[in-house]
Amino acid sequence: MYSHMMVGSNDIAKSKVFYDALFTSVGGKAGITDPKGRLVYLHNGGVFLVTPPIDGKPATCGNGMTIGFTMADTAQADTWHAAGVSAGGKAIEDPPGWRGEGAGALYLAYLRDPDGNKLCALHRAG
C-alpha cells in the first residue's frame, strides 16, 4: 500500500544538496523541483518528496519516525552514509554495521538530514 514518502524542510536548497548527494551516491538522479517548490526523487519505483510545510509553519521531524532505504549491499549503504555526512547530514546511533544474527541480520546506517529527519540505509543478509 506504500505510494510515497514526504518530509518537510525549512531550507529546500540545503535539502537539495543533501538528498541529491544521498540518491546519486546509490545510482539515483538529482531531484527535480515541481511547480509547488517541492523536491521530487524517483528511484527504483519509489517516490520521495521534500517540501516546505503547506500550512506555512516550520517543518519539524517526526519523533520516533525513521525512513528506511533499501540498499543492494553493505558497500552501497556505506557510500550512502558517507555521502549524507559530507552533504550536511549527521551520523547518529551506532556506526554503520550489522545488527542481529543469522537470517535476521541487518546492515544498518543511520543519519539525520539537515532538518532532523531520521533516515536509515538497510541491507538484509543473504
Write the layout of secondary structure elements.
Blueprint: E1 5-8, H1 12-25, E2 32-33, E3 39-43, E4 46-51, E5 67-70, H2 74-86, E6 90-91, E7 97-99, E8 106-112, E9 118-124
Parallel strand pairs: 1-4, 5-9
Antiparallel strand pairs: 2-3, 3-4, 6-8, 7-8, 8-9
Helix pairs in contact: 1-2
Name the CATH class.
Alpha Beta
The count of DSSP E runs of length 2 or more, i.e. the number of strands, is: 9
CATH architecture: Roll
- The gyration radius over C-alpha positions equals 14 Å
Task: Quote the beta fraction.
Answer: 25-35%
Structural class: alpha+beta
- The CATH topology is given as 2,3-Dihydroxybiphenyl 1,2-Dioxygenase, domain 1
Global mean pLDDT: 94
Stretches with pLDDT under 50, minimum 5 residues: none
Helicity, as a percent range: 10-25%
Mind summarizing the main beta sheet?
5 strands, mixed
Instruction: List the helices and strands in order.
Output: EHEEEEHEEEE
How many DSSP helices?
2
Shape: globular
Total individual domains: 1
CATH superfamily: 2,3-Dihydroxybiphenyl 1,2-Dioxygenase, domain 1
Distance between termini? 25 Å
